[in-house]
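Deliverable D2.4 — example input (structure tokens):
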């Protein structure tokens, strides 16, 4: 059985804890590798070595650090297909989706090439008599990233890029379900010129997470995952004086106004709701058509599109719409929630419960589901399902639709489809959600803006990537300087008269 280990001090580091986790092929249900799980002692060793390496890296000229990022971009592009194949084999997402996962992370690394500009401080000339003031942005030291299974390339890249470009060392704890791509990225960073020890990839479970949170050396932690764990990490990190940016669950609503192009809206809902098997924190999981006529027409357009979806393994070709979910437990949880929707009175318009793929009967595939007449008291509305399940909640008016999105405990992303600029502007201004799409179903900001949700979707003051990331991974030092005057007049060529 193939074993996967850690990456410490620029080399593969074989774990010594004796504890392992299985890495599955989600398409077949078979175990394809064993992952070594770190002990607290191993993690402490990685942190100590990172702290040593960070001193020189932090003192490196920002432009030289940016050149490492520049070469890293080239190497990722060179190995794009290989990275995507490994990602698909462990996660299950289609090959084009895997490449998209890598590409969106790559764009953040491209943004980080601008580190010399982003790290510039501020300067005030003559703040007082002979006094100048200026600020410097300096690295925190050693920081940590704890990243989820659903984007095994993108989110590690979102964490490591800004952290390293700012001059920090990073401890990356990727998901134990699909750990290989982060290790491959660490090798590419070494090839790009990153000094050994500056990036340590340590695989582990809760024992490793708690060791990160309790470490007195680690100064900041970034996390993406479920809301309960995000809140746990945020509170425990804050208790030990760390900075924390922790992003949790979502229940993203898409409002469909009566004037919307319903073909466009239906296509958007299918892609946003079922892409990546719904395992995206920005997936649209709730459609809110305004008015009965809009709802009936939307359902009529959705059903044939959903019934035509192709579900299969990534090896079946690029025309597969989505693959399996990550684990058998995830599949069982999705089907349990679907059954709860039926039991609580929702109309299951497209029923994927009996889906089975010939030759892959033991894989973690889930057929597509579409619910209609869902109400806010139902579990399928309140809970993040993280699967290929779309719920339709009918609203009588725009204000009722807006209230549904605003009243939900999650506030990650939302969208409105309309031809009316006034409605769109009002929605964007009033809705209490972090990322808003106008005729865009998955409003993930580009790398030079920031990504982050509100309410129980995000904990912390600063968001991911964009300028916020550079603020998060640095601290500001302000200097007030005054130099003695009277030495600038130059030489004197005659005897000085007595005062």
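Example output (designed residues):
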């Amino acid at each position: 059985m193939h074993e996967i280990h850690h990456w410490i001090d620029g080399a593969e580091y074989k774990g010594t804890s004796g504890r392992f986790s299985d890495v599955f092929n989600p398409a077949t249900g078979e175990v394809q590798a064993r992952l070594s799980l770190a002990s607290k002692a191993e993690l402490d060793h990685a942190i100590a070595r990172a702290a040593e390496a960070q001193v020189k890296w932090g003192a490196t000229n920002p432009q030289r650090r940016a050149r490492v990022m520049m070469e890293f971009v080239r190497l990722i592009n060179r190995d794009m297909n290989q990275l995507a194949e490994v990602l698909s084999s462990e996660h299950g997402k289609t090959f084009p989706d895997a490449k998209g996962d890598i590409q969106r992370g790559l764009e953040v690394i491209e943004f980080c090439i601008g580190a010399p500009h982003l790290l510039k401080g501020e300067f005030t000339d003559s703040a007082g008599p002979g006094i100048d003031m200026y600020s410097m942005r300096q690295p925190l030291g050693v920081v940590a990233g704890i990243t989820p299974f659903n984007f095994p390339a993108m989110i590690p890249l979102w964490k490591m890029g800004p952290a390293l470009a700012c001059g920090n060392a990073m401890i990356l704890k990727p998901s134990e379900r699909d750990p290989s791509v982060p290790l491959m990225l660490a090798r590419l960073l070494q090839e790009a010129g990153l000094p050994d020890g500056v990036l340590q990839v340590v695989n582990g479970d809760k024992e490793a997470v708690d060791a990160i949170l309790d470490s007195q050396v680690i100064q900041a932690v970034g996390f993406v995952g479920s809301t309960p764990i995000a809140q746990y990490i945020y509170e425990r990190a804050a208790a030990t004086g760390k900075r924390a940016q922790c992003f949790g669950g979502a229940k993203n609503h898409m409002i469909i106004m009566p004037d919307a192009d319903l073909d466009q809206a239906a296509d958007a809902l299918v892609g946003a709701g079922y892409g990546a098997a719904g395992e995206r924190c920005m997936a649209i999981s709730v459609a809110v058509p305004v008015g009965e006529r809009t709802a009936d027409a939307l359902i009529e357009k959705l059903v044939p599109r959903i019934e035509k979806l192709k579900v299969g393994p990534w090896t079946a070709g690029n025309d597969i719409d989505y693959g399996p979910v990550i684990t058998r437990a995830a599949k069982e949880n999705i089907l349990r929630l679907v059954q709860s929707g039926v039991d609580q009175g929702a109309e299951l318009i497209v029923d994927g419960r009996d889906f089975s793929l010939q030759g892959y009967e033991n894989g973690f595939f889930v057929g597509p589901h579409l619910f209609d007449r869902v109400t806010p008291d139902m579990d399928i509305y309140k809970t993040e399902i993280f699967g290929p399940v779309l719920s339709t909640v009918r609203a009588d008016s725009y204000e009722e639709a807006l209230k549904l999105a605003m009243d939900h405990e999650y506030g990650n992303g939302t969208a409105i489809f309309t031809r009316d600029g006034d409605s769109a502007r009002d929605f964007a201004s009033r809705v209490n959600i972090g990322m808003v799409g106008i005729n865009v179903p998955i409003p993930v900001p580009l790398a030079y803006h920031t990504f982050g949700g509100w309410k129980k979707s995000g904990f912390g003051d600063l968001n991911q990537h964009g300028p916020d990331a550079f603020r998060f991974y640095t601290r500001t030092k302000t200097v007030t300087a005054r130099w003695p005057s009277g030495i600038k007049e130059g030489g004197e060529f005659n005897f000085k008269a007595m005062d």
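The longest strand covers residues 131-139.
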